[in-house]
């Protein structure tokens, strides 16, 4: 019985020695895998940061170019144009501006005001229709009504 235990012990030692050699031979592969994993984690971190930055820029862009923002910008432009017209009238009435230059500048200013007002009204109309719920064919049954912003600029 002692000899069988001794034999079993030697077999275990031989087996452990063989397993240790196999483990040692696999160590470079393990180290390479660890290094590769660390590189992949670094790449993941860089991609995550780039994605986060792009998402922040997208959110800022969407804030700046939302329909509500465009509405505010158009309203500010309209207000400025109206104020410019009022200033021109006051200058003309105070005789600081000759008739010819007044007519030219006043007509240009009123044209800008009219275009701004029209764009503003069209955008408000589109936003109201969008809030109520869009028809699959678009506003007024026109499939391309929302596709072309030029249409709202050209419409009276």
Describe the structure.
The structure is a single chain. The protein is mostly helical and 156 residues long. 83% of the residues lie in helices and 0% in strands. It has four helices and no strands. Helix 2 (67-93) packs antiparallel against helix 3 (99-132). It is rod-shaped, with a radius of gyration of 38 Å.
- Mean pLDDT across all amino acids: 86
Strand count: 0
Category by helix and strand content: mainly alpha
Helix and strand run: HHHH
- Residue windows where pLDDT falls under 50 for at least 5 positions: 141-156
Summarize the amount of helix as a percent range: over 70%
**End-to-end gap:** 109 Å
How would you name the oligomeric state of the polypeptide chains in this document? single chain
């Amino acid at each position: 019985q002692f000899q069988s235990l001794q034999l079993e012990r030697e077999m275990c030692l031989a087996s452990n020695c063989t397993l240790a050699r196999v483990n040692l031979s696999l160590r470079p592969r393990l180290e390479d895998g660890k290094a590769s994993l660390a590189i992949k984690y670094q790449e993941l971190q860089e991609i995550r940061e780039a994605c986060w930055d792009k998402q922040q820029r997208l959110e800022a862009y969407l804030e700046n170019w939302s329909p509500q923002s465009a509405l505010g910008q158009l309203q500010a432009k309209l207000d400025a144009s109206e104020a410019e017209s009022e200033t021109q009238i006051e200058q003309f009435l105070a005789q600081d501006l000759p008739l010819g230059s007044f007519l030219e500048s006043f007509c240009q200013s009123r044209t800008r005001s009219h275009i701004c007002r029209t764009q503003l009204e069209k955008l408000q109309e589109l936003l109201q229709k969008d809030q109520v719920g869009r028809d699959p064919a678009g506003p007024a049954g026109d499939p391309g009504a929302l596709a072309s912003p030029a249409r709202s600029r050209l419409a009276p």
